[in-house]
Amino acid sequence: MRFRAVFLASLSAATVTAQKAPTLEWLARDVQRVESVREVKDLTRTFSHLAQFGRWGEIAALFADNGVVRVGNITADTVLATGPTVVESWLRADNEDMDGLKTGSLSTFLADQPVVTLSPDGLTAKGRWLVLRLQGTGSGGTRIQGGVFENEYTNIGGRWKISLLHYYPQFDGNYAEGWGNTGTGLRSLPIIPYHYTPDSVGIPILLPSNAANPPSTKATAQELAARISRLNDEDEVRNLQHAYGFYVDRRMWTDATDLFTSDATITADGSRFNGTTRQYLEQMGPENLSQGILNDHNLFDTIVHIDPSGREATTRGIELAMLGNTQTRAATWEFSVFLNRFTKDPSTGIWKISALSTTHLLIANYSSGWGHGGISPLKTPPSPPRFLPISRSAPSPSPSNTSIPSLSSLSLSLSRSAAYDSSESISSAYGYFADDIRCQFFADLHHSAGHKLSPGTGYYLTPARIAQACLSRYSTFDPNPQRPRVPFHWRPQPVAIVSQDGKSVTYRARLLQWGTSNETRGGFNGVSGFNAGVYHDQMVIENINGTERWKLWSLTIDEFYWQSVSWKEGWAAADPRPPSNVTTPSGLAKDYPPDLLLTDEAFGEREVGMDGGKPPNMRWPDLKRMWWGFRNPVSGRAPESYSPGCVPCVARPKWGLEVNGYQEPPTGPSLVKAVREGTSLKVSVSAGPGESVSGKVLVRQEGTGRVVAEGMIKEGGSVSLELGAEGNGLKLVAEFDGSERLKPGQTKVSL
Ligand SMILES: *[C@@H]1O[C@H](CO)[C@@H](O)[C@H](O)[C@H]1NC(C)=O
Ligand SMILES: *[C@@H]1O[C@H](CO)[C@@H](O)[C@H](O)[C@H]1NC(C)=O
Ligand SMILES: *[C@@H]1O[C@H](CO)[C@@H](O)[C@H](O)[C@H]1NC(C)=O
Ligand SMILES: *[C@@H]1O[C@H](CO)[C@@H](O)[C@H](O)[C@H]1NC(C)=O
Ligand SMILES: *[C@@H]1O[C@H](CO)[C@@H](O)[C@H](O)[C@H]1NC(C)=O
Ligand SMILES: *[C@@H]1O[C@H](CO)[C@@H](O)[C@H](O)[C@H]1NC(C)=O
Ligand SMILES: *[C@@H]1O[C@H](CO)[C@@H](O)[C@H](O)[C@H]1NC(C)=O
Ligand SMILES: *[C@@H]1O[C@H](CO)[C@@H](O)[C@H](O)[C@H]1NC(C)=O
């Protein structure tokens, strides 16, 4: 009852926004803005890709001529290098023999979880990244380091360059002892200033319609259409790559296999695998995990490149696998590069994996570590899989005879890609505010009617209650404290599914957690070594008194799927414990009761086994059930543990997006089938369980685009369209227009 007013307010806010019709100039500027945000990210990801192979000269070339490297803390800052030549020498000296080139050496310089903010004029950008460096000399030396980048970027003649690499180290150490807070005396850590506020991080990338007049443009609508569809394709391919990774973690071989073309090729360390995709995957183990098996393959710094044709794509990134078996106590690290190919199915337009290629750099036994080059050191380190370009080269425009969508429809498609990046910024900003326990800041990232899970307890509704729950747990809000310890909440590997209107997103991310402290090496109390979980979030655009901001609508963490016993013993040392049949209410639940407890009956199965959920309480090496908010992106299969929409909506349907005036993003592809029946064509569309299909179907002649028949799907998911005699011999495309809940889909059929 208490929140009714808030719901009504948000309902009207979401329907108020009326966009002015875009002009070509306006659209050209906005396409450039989204491409810029992505190039800035790819530039920094390329830094990480190149670092694995000691390509210091090429990294230096990512810098502007007057680009600067600064390393320091908030009180004392040192400029270490200015200009590419000096940057290169600095990198060479800093990494010494841990360059990935000397036999057995390891050079991992991960930077992920970007908050990239573009200036209003689109010519400069700032980016915050979480950094983790795992290095080894091959002859025993190791280094573990990390912290935060608060970088600056500049666009010089159409190319993005790093103008400032500002590295704030926060922890360092080595493999044998683990790490602790940076600096002598294990001092406390200050908060590293953010280049954004909870409000500014939500500013949409596309400028509002009352922004200054955009510059004139030479781009044609046709070129912009091709660039926008490439951005949309990047989102599909990135989601597919990351979903594949999540399926691999749980050895969901049926789902993983669905993602591949039937003639997909698999290459591992340069040799072509002679067998099926399924056989390849089963080399990791049989389908599904059993107790005590860890198969996590964390994917970082994924760059997606769409070929100019728009029909093929490549992904490249860094895979850090953490593998183990608590029964045998075996545990390993695997450092590799993935370089995968994707193809757009010519009939359905759905992307699939057509070639998987993995190059291992180093495989190490957990107990002995990576300092000696791993289990079977390679005599010569592998040559780098090819690097992907950063700049988006001009795509081939679609044939001049195909119809170009209207500018409004192009603008809508572009807003979906902008939403992808905005949701990543909100996700990352949440991660940094959580690391720093900035209660009020992460509360303010939420929508005025948004909700958040406080781990092990329940959901709090509205920013004020989210902040209070955090404060009652952590007691103070000092805006700039020195902290003795930091728990890092890394949220890589997003699968972000954007609604048809570009105003809401369903977002899955990994939680990879570690910590640093002034007293314990390799972590601190609750966080020693590494922990893992899964976030299931939703983000929306909120209209706040006429100003649009991206906000968190819903935040859930399912944790922990596994935890290290300690840095020294690792994740495979965990012993099974008898399951507990009682859930002890957390202190927070007593001190400041949530709006919805995780033990609420209305959750049904959803929270059983989760920390704070209904018993039996499960702890690694028991396997918690893993939930999915989306269906298979290729086959549309719904997983067994399927819970679409906001997680607490299972128990509180009124917290759902649709009830509050937003669109619920699609849960998977809309699969279209077209079958000839006499003189008519039966077109059917399938969606997720319980999702009703409605919408327009158009049957066009392939090539000319001439509409041959059209109709509406109302119930039962299919419609019969009369073609008459003229259908014979035609190549047709049956297109489903989509709806508020469903993606468009299509299939080709020859009569
Ligand atoms: C920052 O670094 C300087 C120089 O290394 C050091 O003297 C100072 O104590 C550091 N400050 C903090 C807050 O860590
Ligand atoms: C691949 O496997 C098939 C069937 O298992 C076998 O006949 C063939 O010789 C193999 N090819 C290579 C190159 O190993
Ligand atoms: C793996 O789990 C899924 C979902 O529970 C189930 O359908 C499938 O049969 C399992 N596979 C095996 C080999 O047990
Ligand atoms: C890993 O190290 C442990 C302890 O030294 C040893 O017992 C085990 O055989 C090693 N495993 C591998 C795969 O090298
Ligand atoms: C760690 O930090 C806490 C809190 O600031 C302080 O009480 C403690 O003395 C510090 N420990 C060390 C070893 O510096
Ligand atoms: C919106 O405007 C109203 C009326 O001017 C004001 O009371 C309210 O604080 C504003 N809300 C926000 C979030 O700025
Ligand atoms: C927990 O409940 C299950 C099923 O009711 C029962 O079999 C088991 O013995 C109980 N375990 C404990 C520790 O009470
Ligand atoms: C349109 O262009 C494509 C590719 O150039 C061609 O295959 C097709 O026949 C053309 N259609 C018409 C109606 O000209």
From TrEMBL:
UniProt xrefs under SUPFAM superfamilies: NTF2-like
Domain SnoaL-like intervals: 32-164, 230-355
Annotated spans, Disordered: 381-404
InterPro entries per record: NTF2-like_dom_sf (IPR032710), SnoaL-like (IPR037401)
Keyword Signal applies: yes
Keyword terms, alphabetized: Signal
Pfam family, one: SnoaL_4
Keyword Nuclease set for record: no
Sequence ranges of Low complexity compositional bias: 388-404
Protein name (database record): SnoaL-like domain-containing protein
Signal sequence, renumbered to the chain: 1-18
